[in-house]
Specification:
Blueprint: H1 5-43, H2 53-67, H3 71-77, H4 79-86, H5 92-116, H6 120-128, H7 133-166, H8 174-184, H9 189-219
Helix pairs in contact: 1-5, 1-7, 1-8, 2-5, 4-5, 5-7, 6-7, 7-9, 8-9
Organism: Halobacillus shinanisalinarum
Transmembrane segments: 20-43, 55-78, 84-108, 149-171, 191-213
Family: Belongs to the binding-protein-dependent transport system permease family.
């Protein structure tokens, strides 16, 4: 049976809001986890500000472990954790948990990459002036790498948009759930096209905003 698009638009708008909510909450939580992990990977590595090889090797292995698991498998694998944390394994709230597990280590790697782009001479100058390791992190590393970090967080956000769509396979809500329920299972091609176009628009807006913000920071 064909869906009446005029009557279906409220459901499409609701699914769009669910996707934006999932991505927003997941990005915030994953950033709060990923940024400190990225900093730790840089400062504890060999030659880092507070070199600690055992800690670095352990953290590096954990990040690599989670980075190596495809999202759709991670989504299913941590269902017991998801149920424990939010009391359910379906819906928008449940989708946030695997999204954070997936994107936190990814953001850690992106932040690590951005910090490693900071010129060694700048770090050496700060050390020569007597700055402590954490002063160097917050007054040198992060300000110098901020433009790159913004671009990398933009990449992470776009990745979250794609992952949130995959969450629809397990009833995660949002545009992905809508596309699967109507566009795939009921062969409603028009619904599928609309959801794809909305996801494209979201990605374009995120990428444009990230580019503008990064460029503005770089010029300061």
């Amino acid at each position: 049976m064909q869906v009446n698009l005029a009557e279906f638009w409220p459901r499409i708008l609701e699914a769009t809001n669910e996707t934006l909510l999932m991505v927003g909450i997941s990005l915030l939580a994953a950033t709060l986890i990923g940024v400190p992990l990225g900093i730790a990977l840089v400062v504890t590595r060999k030659g880092g500000l507070i070199q600690n090889s055992p800690f670095f090797n352990g953290l590096n292995a954990v990040v690599n472990f989670f980075r190596s698991i495809p999202f759709i498998i991670l989504l299913v694998a941590i269902l017991p954790i998801t149920r424990f944390l939010v009391g359910t394994s379906i819906g928008t709230a449940a989708a946030v948990v695997p999204l954070v597990f997936f994107s936190g280590p990814f953001i850690a790697r992106l932040v690590e990459s951005s910090l490693l782009e900071v010129k060694p001479g700048v770090i050496e100058a700060a050390e020569a002036m007597g700055a402590s390791p954490w002063q160097i992190v917050f007054r040198v590393y992060l300000p110098e790498a901020l433009s790159s970090i913004v671009l990398n967080l933009t990449i992470a956000t776009i990745g979250l948009v794609g992952a949130s769509a995959m969450a629809g396979f397990v009833g995660g809500g949002g545009l992905g759930d809508l596309a699967i329920a109507y566009g795939y299972q009921r062969f409603e091609t028009d619904i599928m096209v609309i959801t794809v176009l909305l996801l494209v628009v979201i990605v374009q807006v995120v990428q444009t905003f990230g580019n503008i913000l990064s460029k503005k920071i770089r010029r300061q």
